[in-house]
Specification:
Blueprint (H helix, E strand, L loop, with lengths): L5 E2 L3 H10 L4 H8 L3 H9 L12 E2 H11 L21 H6 L1
Antiparallel strand pairs: 1-2
């Protein structure tokens, strides 16, 4: 399994947008394809609210959350676009390039 860099996410923004959309944690988690507890952890533990114990997510999961919420990824990520983590290609993809 390739090593995937974690994306910097904004937990409170995810939670606030989810609530504005009238979605439960369970509904969003189902749409994204992750466990409800995983989503709860992402909402509660990010690098700003809990710097000693952030819970990360992959860039792919962050994109799926944004799509399910109907927002751009930048709305639920931390920092300028240039500082956001992006997917790291698998070893096979690097060799093919």
């Amino acid at each position: 399994m390739p090593v995937v860099q974690q994306a910097g996410h904004n937990g409170p923004a995810i939670r606030d947008i989810r609530r504005i959309r009238g979605m439960s944690c369970s509904e969003l988690a189902d749409q994204v394809g992750i466990h409800e507890q995983s989503l709860r952890n992402l909402e509660l533990y990010d690098s700003v609210t809990r710097p000693a114990d952030p819970k990360g997510c992959s860039w792919e999961v962050l994109e799926r959350i944004a799509a399910a919420l109907g927002v751009r990824v930048q709305s639920i990520s931390r920092g300028p676009i240039g500082q956001m983590a992006s997917p790291v290609p698998a070893k096979d993809e690097e060799d093919a390039a």
